[in-house]
Design goal:
This protein is an all-alpha fold. The protein has three helices and no strands. The protein has one domain.
Length: about 130
């Protein structure tokens, strides 16, 4: 068997046939190698494009978040200022009510006002 294969391989037709088979195998092998290399290069290229688009989206999101955080901080400061103003107004109302009660305690029964004007003004200032 080995002798028959050796005799075929050494003949011109056998050598030509073996050379042709090897050439076809090398051609297709090289094509497969090039295909895989191109596929890897394309994947890398697409990955870089995707990462750049992702970086841009993250930067845009962070910019929107900074604007939102600034608006929240501004609203918080306005609320704190409003609370301070409310505390001052409440303190003024409590003082006015205390004065009214003191005036009512000292006033004659027939001269009592339903609501003193100062208290009415303080209540009108409340939003």
């Amino acid at each position: 068997m080995f002798a028959a294969a050796f005799a075929f391989a050494t003949s011109r037709i056998g050598a030509l046939l073996i050379g042709t088979v090897l050439a076809v195998a090398v051609f297709f092998g090289w094509g497969e190698y090039q295909y895989r290399a191109g596929k890897a290069a394309g994947a890398l290229s697409e990955r870089l494009v995707w990462e750049e688009a992702r970086r841009k989206l993250i930067a845009a999101h962070e910019a929107r978040m900074a604007v939102s955080e600034a608006a929240i901080a501004k609203a918080e400061q306005q609320y704190i200022a409003y609370q301070a103003e409310s505390a001052i107004r409440l303190n003024g109302l409590e003082t006015t009510i205390a004065e009214m009660e003191a005036d009512l305690a000292n006033a004659a029964p027939a001269c009592r006002a339903v609501m003193p004007s100062r208290l009415s003004r303080e209540l009108n200032r409340i939003r």
